[in-house]
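Can anyone check this?
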Amino acid sequence: MSVHIDPFKAQDSNIDGLKIINAKMVTDDRGTVRELYRGSVYSEVLPESVSSWKQINLTRTKKGAVRGLHGEAMSKLVTVAYGSVFGAYVDTRPGSKTFGAVQTVHIEPGVQVFVPQGVCNGFQALEDTEYLYFFDNEWAPGMPGTALCPIDPELNINWPIAIDQSDLNQISEKDSKAPSFKELCAELGL
């Protein structure tokens, strides 16, 4: 039996605190086992403030659909269980040395992104996909956070599949009408 091991790797991004992670994967003739999370390993790369996951969500998203950009009062570890996405992240933390920076990541099984609190997270499904979120805080209606319109041209996010703003099967009205980056800066007094 042939066995291949891809070790855990983590790298920094152009957004302070945002990490791109390749999970440990063991593949043999039967298939693949991916470590979604191992506290002893992840504690070496995640901030001490992330001590446990309080909520885990799995979304099923159709090819071409966009979710986000949302930056709630929680840190997230995101990945896909099945399929692939084009992930987009924007630093909306006032005072951050990378405020306004954008990072994109192709996420497929085994690739994860740690998203610090205050960084907006969004994605577009490149195929029918199951997207997994680990949260260090439970979501609650009205919780503090930011949102940005994912199709704001100022963000210069090159979504791989054209987005029709009027197609509610592709983008929610809430997301398409979220503030632009310029509007967010005005709200923050920047």
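Reply from J.R.: I decoded it. Residues 72 and 140 are 10 Å apart (CA to CA).
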